Amino acid sequence: MVDKHLHIVCLDVPYPVDHGGIFDLFYKIVALYELNIKIHLHCFEYGRGHQVELNKYCAEVIYYKRKRSVSSFSLSLPYIVNSRRNAELLTNLLKDDHPVLMEGIHCTYFLSQNKLLNKKVFVRLHNVESEYYKQLANSTTSVFKKMYFLYESRLLKKYEQKISSKATFIAVTLKDKEIYEKEFHVTDVKYLPVFLPFNAVRTKQGRGSYCLYHGNLGIPENEKAVRWLLSNVFNTLSIPFVVAGKNPSERLRRLAHQNSNTCLVENPADDEMNELISKAHINILPSFNSTGIKIKLLNALFNGRHCIVNAAAVDGTGLESLCCIAKDSASFKININALYKRVFTNEDIKSRKQILLSKYDNEQNAGQLIQWIY
Question: How do strand 37-45 and strand 4-10 relate by DSSP bridges?
Answer without folding.
Answer: parallel
